[in-house]
Amino acid sequence: KQWYQRRVAITAGGYVVFKNADSVTNALAKNGTVLEDRHIRVDKLIKSRDETKQESTCSIFLGNLPFSVDEEDVRAAFGECGEIDYVRITRDKVTVWVSAAFFM
Known about the structure:
By secondary structure, the chain is α+β, with helices and mostly antiparallel strands. Helix content is 26%, strand content 30%. It contains 4 helices and 6 strands, in the order H-E-H-E-E-E-H-E-H-E. It has a 4-stranded antiparallel β-sheet. Strands 2-3 form a two-stranded antiparallel sheet. A hairpin with a 2-residue loop joins strand 2 (34-35) and strand 3. Residues 1-9 and 98-104 have low confidence and may be disordered.
C-alpha cells in the first residue's frame, strides 16, 4: 500500500489536439524539454478506431507530465506551436492513476 500511495502522485499523461496538422511538427520538437522539473515525452497520437482522421493527424500524446499540471500549463507550454483546439489530461477518477485508454 505504501508503494501505491507514492506511485499515484508521480506523473500524468494527456494529449493536445491542434487546429491544424502543421502544429504537430512544431510540438514534436518539444520532446524531452523540461516542464516543472520533468522531461516530458511528446509523440504523435496513433489513431484509434473511433477517432476521426482529422483528430489523429492534429494530435500529440504527452507523457511524464508533472502530476500537478493542468490544462492551462499545457496550453502555455504548447501554445507557441500552433492554435490549440483542446487539451486533455487523463487520470482515473477513482485511483487518480493516469488513464491508459488513449494509448490504444
